[in-house]
Each structure stands twice: as C-alpha cells, then as structure tokens.
Write a structure and sequence with these properties.
The protein is an alpha+beta fold. It has helices spanning 3-11, 177-188, 192-210; strands at residues 14-15, 22-23, 28-29, 35-36, 44-50, 57-59, 70-75, 83-84, 87-88, 95-100, 104-105, 108-110, 128-129, 140-145, 151-154, 166-169, 221-227, 230-236.
Length: 267
C-alpha cells in the first residue's frame, strides 16, 4: 500500500448528509496498488444545526472543501409562510444557513415533480419551533452545497407546502422556482371546487328528502263569486283534501276570510 493510500485509509469515514452518511470509498486498482480511487457522491453536506436559545450549535461535519459564499435564508416570520429569499444561485462549496422564525417550520428536500413529498435519502432539518419569535438566538440549520444542479425544498408543516412554502437552489429556465411553487399549490393546495360540489349535492339531497310531493287531485270543486264587475263562475282544480281543515272551500283566496287584492277594488 502506498503512502497516499495509508493517508486516505486513516481519513476514511462516514459524513452525515442527505442519506444519513456519505460513503467515501477508497481502493486500489492493479497489482501494484499505486492508484487510489476517491468517490464522493452527495448533493449536500450538513455542517451544523441548532434549536436556538441556550441549546448551542452542534457541529455535524466539517466543510468538505474550502467554503465559498454564505447564503442566509429566513424561514417563516410574522404571518409569513415563505423562505426569504425563495431561491438562490449557489456554486459548489457555498454555504447555506437557514434561520427559523415563527412559528414551526422545516427545510426538507424534495423532487421538482413532487414538491411536497420528502425525497428518499434527502436532507431535512426537522421541525425547528420558534413560537412568536420568542427563541433567541433563533434555531438554525447549515449545509454545504456539493453540486451546481437544481435542489428543491419545502416546509413539512401541515398545509404550508400547499400554500406555496417552497425553496430552490439553482433553478433553471425550464425548471423555475415559480413552476415549482405552482405545482406545490396545485398538488397540495386546498381546492374550493370540491367544497362547492359537495355543498350542491348536499342541498339537492336535502330537497329530495324533505320536500313531499303534492297530494293528488281527488275532485274538482265548482264555486261561484260575485264581484263589483259582475258574476263569474270558477272551478278549483285542487282537491278538497289539499287545503287545511276549515279553509279553501267556499272561501276567497284559498283561506277563510281572505279576499284577493284584485277583487278589493280601488282603495
């Protein structure tokens, strides 16, 4: 084994990342053992995290390379379901630090096509509560970007992703932050159409079950009337049983003692 191989073997280990660990694979090819292969295949390496207040900051991993630019992201805020800014452009090696404001949010990795579904082996901060911004200093979550391709994130709090609480790193012209957010709302937002249909169906059901059919006509009642303009004869096509007891028959207007306004003459 060469000296280089010995150094790599001494440094080999697990680094917590999106899959829980990043495997650094070392090996030699050929009988001479003079070639060492290093394979690190990760999108993100988690650097540190904090639940704020007196909990302090826990260092998870050292940066895997010299840190580039640091991007500061605010998560939530007073009556705000958003990441601020909602997207960034980051180079390989850049650091991203999330600061969690009210109320209780996450930064959880997803795929572009399924914005509100946790990506298998993806990173997630877990919930970082900060009720009414009473936790000081606020909770944080820090990672280093290992790729220059798009990365997608959302908040796992119930209902937040469906209201558009999503975040992206390196969105493209064909996969934009706006498209990602729109899909989150379309796939997981609350639809008013379903409610309207349900209400209509319920009302129709109520009408069907509560409105009885009118009684059948059992007889034709012949009546007569004298008004100021002369005599007339009329027939009522409603059966006698259609009227409440004591009304209708031999009465004006269908109810005892009532006179239609048109027959009352000028006031």
């Amino acid at each position: 084994m060469t000296r280089l191989s010995v150094l790599f073997a001494a440094f080999a280990g697990a680094v917590a990342t999106q899959a829980g660990v990043v495997e650094r694979q070392y090996g030699s090819s050929g009988s001479s053992g003079t070639t060492t292969t290093v394979n690190v295949d990760v999108d993100i390496v988690v650097i540190s995290e904090s639940f704020g207040g007196s909990s302090g900051t826990m260092q998870i991993n050292p940066p895997t390379m010299t840190p580039g630019m640091t991007h500061m992201i605010t998560v939530g805020g007073p009556d705000l379901l958003a990441y601020t800014p909602p997207s960034i452009s980051a180079a390989i090696g850049d650091i991203v630090i999330f600061t969690f404001m009210e109320q209780n949010h996450t930064v959880t990795q997803s795929a572009f096509d399924t914005p509100c579904v946790e990506l298998p082996n993806g990173v997630s901060s877990g919930f970082r509560p900060n009720p009414n911004n009473t936790v000081s200093p606020a909770p944080t979550y820090e990672f280093q970007v290992m790729v220059d391709t798009p990365l997608w994130f959302y908040c796992q709090q119930k209902g937040h992703c469906g209201k558009g609480m999503v975040f992206s790193i390196n969105p493209t012209a064909t996969k934009t932050q706006a498209d990602f957010q729109m899909m989150a709302i379309q796939q997981n937002g609350t639809s008013t159409t379903t409610t309207a249909i349900s209400t209509t169906t319920t009302m129709a059901s109520m009408m069907t079950t509560t409105m009885a059919a009118p009684p059948s006509v059992t007889s034709v009642v012949t009546g007569s009337d004298t008004s100021g303009s002369g005599e007339c004869s009329c027939q009522c096509l409603c059966g006698v049983d259609s009227f409440p007891s004591g009304t209708g028959l031999n009465s004006f207007g269908g109810f005892s003692g009532q006179l239609p306004a048109i027959m009352a003459g000028p006031a």
